[in-house]
Amino acid sequence: MIWVVVPVMSVDGGALPDTGLVRYTTTGVLDTSDFGGNTGIKRLDLSASGHDHDSPSGVALTADSKIVLAVEAAQQGIFQHTLARLDTHGSIDDSFGTHGIARNSFAAGGDFARELVIQADGRIVTAGSTRPTDSFSDDMLITRHDANGSLDTSFGSNGKVLVDFFSSADGAAALLIQPDGKIVAAGIARNANTNSLAIVRVLP
Question: pTM for the complete prediction?
């Protein structure tokens, strides 16, 4: 199957988006056989309150074809680092995280998971940013999670690696795993009024 993440889907025409997933067949038509209640479309509210902003930013499939999402999801306006796992029909997989969702708050200003990759051993690596305060001085954030959604505390500092380039706004939006297992994240690093390409490689 071909999977496409819908980045924004409004709730009944409202201003706050929900997470959307669309599944297509290999011929490019909606797969209405067994996904999203036979519609080919699945909409989920993954915000902590159920009435806040959430939108998908990354997607990957596990070895058994379950769907793992990186989600920008807020609680009372503060974004949390959020992952969710769905089964092959688009339903929440309760065996992942807490009722299918793994949320973490690393900093007072908010945390953002913007991309993810699943390692060969099933562990989940994410890249994005973390905001220590509300001043938008983000640091690049790389995390690793066990297959059940819990943080892999053997990675970095209790499951996370932070990178601060110029004491300004940094963040990652692309991620890959090299054949030797090293993790490469790419994004931007802001120095004064200039944005630069930023690439980091992390040992596994």
Answer: 0.90
